[in-house]
Amino acid sequence: MAQQTIDGLLGYITGGMANLHGTFATSRATDELLEAGRRGMADFLNCQPQEVAFGQNMTSLAFAIARSLGSFIQAGDEIVVTELDHRANVDPWVTLAKDRGAVVKFIPVNPETYTLELDHLDELITAKTKLVAVTMSSNVVGTVPPVEQIIERAKAVGALMVLDAVHATPHYPIDFQKLGADVLFCSAYKFFGPHLGIAVVSAGLFENLPVYKLAPAPAYIPDKLETGTQNHEGIAGLLGALAFIESLGEGNTRQERLRTAMQAVEEQEQRQAQELEAFLQTLPHVRLYRAPAGTRKTPTVAFTLEGVNSREACAWFFENYNMNIADGHFYASTLAEKLGIMAQGGWIRLGLAPYNTDQEIELFKTALLAFIKRSY
Predict the structure, then answer these.
(1) Assigned fold of 3-246
(2) pLDDT tens-digit map of 75-98
(3) What positions does the domain Aminotransferase class V occupy (predicted)?
(4) What pLDDT score does 244 carry?
């Protein structure tokens, strides 16, 4: 969490918390806070402020939107998801299909390249397809699918397009308008903010989305999707996180500074990830789960160690080198099952961010070599 995020959270809490639509100053300040949060995310993702809705987390927002889309889906319709995705961008749509009698199809993952197999995309996305959901970056192996190709096919058959950008937003610039998707999800905690879910819904769909809400609640966008009292302090923290990212960029407008900041972040992270990848490829007893050179990837590097439980290895890294390295399936359970990695506790996952230094990369190399020496 960035210091600006902490300052935003504390500033709102200590400045007098209040709910919306009152006549007094702290309530009016909260009204403006939400609008400022929407404007900030609009600059970050190049969408319209009225297309931005806040919620508990990405998963809750996805289930809420899936429930709202029920009237759009009929028995015999088809919904397409992928084997690469975090289940938060699978199960809301699988549940919707089950409720409505629709058919679910999976875009498969190539188990050797960890990329989506798109050679038969026209057979997967057909005139029967009503919704397609795909990640913009795997939260485990880092693969960035060619979502533009998938969006083009979905739009050709009139299907709604849903993007999970939770793992993508911290690592490269995103342009919602240029992508032409209908729904995009992200989470502020992934880009140095608080735990806060964000949904971007294209205005045309949003206006006609029959969301489940309380009768007296606003019926206009984006408020109609924001059930109950929002996490106002979290939105204040979100603005701090955006300010931190903006400070890394250059330009005459906030949108320009945010875009150039994310370009700089991607450049640094790619350099460090490539160094890590090259190192891991040279080691015995290490299996690296990484798409081939030439495939766009985020700096999320997953591997396993032969004959070693991944959780035990991560505990050793923490106890001996104070390294916070995660293990498990990371809710990419479809991919985990397909690759058969749960028998040894799942993956060991390294995730790089702008604050990671070259010295930390070297320390990890030292730690892993020490672990291999003691284990084999």
Answers:
(1) Aspartate Aminotransferase; domain 2 (3.40.640)
(2) 999 999 999 999 999 999 999 999
(3) 3-364
(4) 98
CA atoms of 361 and 68, how far apart (whole Å): 45
* Nearest alpha carbon to residue 217 among 206, 228, 230, 207: 228
At residue 16, the pLDDT reads 85
From the list 129, 200, 122, the residue with the least C-alpha distance to 158 is 129
Pairing verdict, β 160-164 and 129-135: parallel
Strand duo 347-351 + 326-328: pairing? antiparallel
Contact between 275 and 299 under an 8 Å Cβ cutoff? The reply is: no
- Give the C-alpha separation, 250 to 263, whole Å: 11
Candidates 82, 83, 147, 150; CA nearest to 122 is 150
Q: In the structure encoding, which two tokens stand for residue 65, read together? A: 């939107």
Is the backbone of residue 78 left (phi > 0), alpha (psi -120 to 50) or beta?
beta
pLDDT in tens, 303-317: 999 999 999 999 999
227 contacts 214 by C-beta, under 8 angstroms: yes
Give bridge partners of residue 80 from the DSSP assignment: 105, 132
User: Side by side, which strands form the sheet with 160-164?
Assistant: 52-55, 197-201, 183-187, 160-164, 129-135, 78-82, 103-107
- The two tokens of residue 300 are 């999320």
Q: What are the structural domain ranges in the chain?
A: 3-246, 267-375
Helix axes 254-281, 25-45, angle to 10 degrees: 60
CATH of domain 267-375: 3.90.1150.10
